[in-house]
Amino acid sequence: MELGGAYYCFCSSERISSLKDENGNTRYDKHCLNLTKEEIKAKIDAGEKYVIRQNIPLEGSGSYHDLVYGDITVDYKDIEDGILLKSDGMPTYNFANVIDDHLMGITHVIRGTEYLSSTPKYNLMYDAFGWERPVYIHLPVIMKDATRKLSKRYGDASYADFVQKGYVKQAIINYIALLGWSPKENQEKMSLSELVEKFSLEGISKSPSIFDDVKLRWLSGEYIKEMSFDEFKTLSYPFFKASKAYGKYDEDKLLTLAKSRVQIYSEIPSKIDFLEEFDKFDLSLFENAKQKSSVELAKQVLPKIIETLQGVTEWNNSKLFEVLVNLSASLEIKKQALLWITRIALTGLESTAGGATEVADVLGKEETLRRLNFSLNLLA
């Protein structure tokens, strides 16, 4: 106030609400700006409530340079004399922010583009105190869609929410870093160290970016594909434990089944729970023209499949696949047809994570033969 950057305001809320500009918006009219020291003291002594307002010039404009958007100029007539100290003596964010940044020695202020037009009012405070202005870097906001900004206030997910949903942490960081910024090489998948190495302000876009959950899921899936099995098992285990199949089959075989088929860890139960949902099913699932399969063919070959698998002693995916392919050749039928029939008989489902021999490997010999015989009885 002593430097002319602010002044006492004793106006009532009723008076302020009655002030409207040409657009019908409430706008303070500097009514208390020219009160004398004696008038101010008399009002304070009388117990009148007051706030401290910033004194924005009536004419001219405020200019500054932003490292992303270049030179920005805002007319002072478009900035209102905002409140710096409230009637209870507490500072508003706008005032506390400037003081706090100065006292902490902040040299660069990085924030969203919604502050581009209000930055001159912060600069007026820096100038009034005789402080050095910080360097400004305004970033494009992330949008939920073409009209709405992504906001936690409206229930949009945060970083922690995506972690809890099972997205790979590195993928979240990677994806968010590419919203509004792109490297010169147009590379999409990068580690944190690569992001640091390649980052430059020149790559920042001036336009908002729309958050695409589908793209994030894809990127998360790419990270999972490239993980070692041991890393995947460690990171996915809390989600794996939520599966109905947990504790009932070989863990490594179950997770191997899921690893190449999930994009986020929380999908694991939905990919493997089918193993625990086997019961009577629609026999028309055996009908598949593309795979050259039919109910009649299933009736003919299922007994052969059971007989062949009963003699298998080395129970693993590779061996089972080899045995069934050889069987299809001896029966002179397409291997796709035989494998289709085997998988339908094992799961009762049109589509599953894992083919016939992968599922049989997880189920084990005893359960595999039980299910095949169950399906054979349905066909009888």
Brief descriptors of the model:
single chain, 380 residues, mainly alpha, 4 domains, elongated, Rossmann fold, three-stranded antiparallel sheet, Glutamyl-tRNA Synthetase, domain 2
Task: Explain how this protein is built.
The chain is mainly alpha-helical and 380 residues long. It has 4 domains: 6-139, 3-Layer(aba) Sandwich (Rossmann fold), CATH 3.40.50; 152-218, Glutamyl-trna Synthetase, Domain 2 (Glutamyl-tRNA Synthetase, domain 2, Orthogonal Bundle), CATH 1.10.1160.10; 227-276, no CATH class; 283-379, Orthogonal Bundle (Arc Repressor Mutant, subunit A). The chain is 43% helix and 10% strand. It has 16 helices and 9 strands. It has helices at 13-17, 37-45, 93-103, 119-129, 159-164, 169-177, 192-198, 213-226, 229-240, 251-259, 268-272, 295-310, 317-331, 335-347, 356-363, 365-379, and strands at 6-9, 51-54, 61-66, 70-75, 83-85, 108-112, 135-139, 142-143, 209-210. A 3-stranded antiparallel β-sheet has the order 1-2-5. A two-stranded antiparallel sheet has the order 3-4. A hairpin with a 3-residue loop joins strand 3 (61-66) and strand 4. Helix 14 (335-347) packs across helix 15 (356-363). It is elongated.
User: End-to-end distance, in Å?
Assistant: 95 Å
Strands, total number: 9
As a percent range, the share of strand residues is 5-15%
What's the total helix number?
Answer: 16
